[in-house]
């Protein structure tokens, strides 16, 4: 990966001038500020284009959208280029990173935008002085993605918008369930890492029952990935196990209830990754997810329960 020099400022060491420091800039990337009309806020959107994008102006590419972009965007971009191998390993795609509201901290923005109700965990303090902790604006944020981000990508890039892939982890995984239940065709593939089904005492189960009461189909491909430590373990001395929350059990039950509906268009799997916990599993989620959703010419990864 090369760099694009961006001068910052000159400095001195022991009074001797030092060459101006340069920022490290990812090639073939852009940052756009997008106004969420229904929320009245601005968000940054990061875009990474495939290496051969400029050489193939008539080609369209599938588009992967990922939340928590400040962390996830450069990671996915790097993993994708490592796996892709010019299309032999995995298919090239446009990557769209959904960053946080301008002026908000990541914690404040994601708590509010990725959760379905305003009944968040008790005892939380705001990391933005003078502003209360907020939850429960997932529906508005879903509309922002669909009504403001999708048209931007469709109008400005060689995007195959019939092949939209969603990636979210933790609260981002919970947001993915929300979109799957209430607007499943927003994405063709959902890669959901460690969805936080414990939020608001498991309210997403009740929301699922309500949303699916009259639904005849749920057309989507869903891969849920968790670390094997995301459950209470028998070895209490191993701090990598969850203390109380059984995220593995919750997500297996959630997907099993979806599968029990026998929707013809739904294809869903849950896998666990040995040796990983809630914080370490994300890179594996990305590797498995890209191989699953965008296989290349070589044999692809297939999701099987674990």
From TrEMBL:
Keywords, sorted A to Z: Hydrolase
Record flagged with keyword Zinc: no
Keyword NADP: no
Pfam families: Esterase
Region (Disordered) location: 111-130
GO MF annotation: an example: hydrolase activity, acting on ester bonds
Bias type Polar residues, positions: 115-125
Similarity comment text for this entry: Belongs to the esterase D family.
Name of the protein in its database record: Esterase
